[in-house]
What we know:
single chain, alpha+beta, Yope Regulator, Chain: A, six-stranded antiparallel sheet, 8 helices, 51% helix, 20% strand
Amino acid sequence: MTPQDITHLLQTRFDRACELKPPHKWQVETSDLRLLVLLSEDQTWLRLLVPIVPMAEAQPYLTEILRANFDRTPCYATHENLLWGVFQHNLASLDGDQFSAALDQLIAMKQAGISPFFNTLIETKVRQLIQAAKLQGQSLEATLQTINRFYAEGVMGDMEDDNYGKQALAGWQRQLERLWPEVNPEVNPSEALGNG
């Protein structure tokens, strides 16, 4: 792939939103996307960058983010107090299909934001709760009653808004019913959490 190929692919996909910043930078700005495309000084390496969220929002999920980086390309990185989606590749061996696929993946990362990490963290916490409940000999029904009581007493949130309360309890019930059979109290808790 050449710099001219990059310009052509970006202009074809993003039209006027693509701005060339000679000698080796491109920027795409739309209402919902900011993409930076950079070449190394010697023009041997390409880097695509998309800001995802401010680091303050990502901070609680850093463990999950680092775990996700282990298996994925593009990956996540931090710079200037932002969480970025990053794709790097040797320019000479990169083709148009790979470039387009990397763009698609980065855009998907931007659209997903930190939701996947929040969901993973919540699932881990629900598994821990199930582990503790089972070790105490509680049934699924008794665990749901305890959660219901905690909400009613204000321990787990404000139930003044009936709609929120119903949604929260329904969410707990779905997660507990889905994960309850998967958690075995005889297993080491770290293994039950998928960390073993």
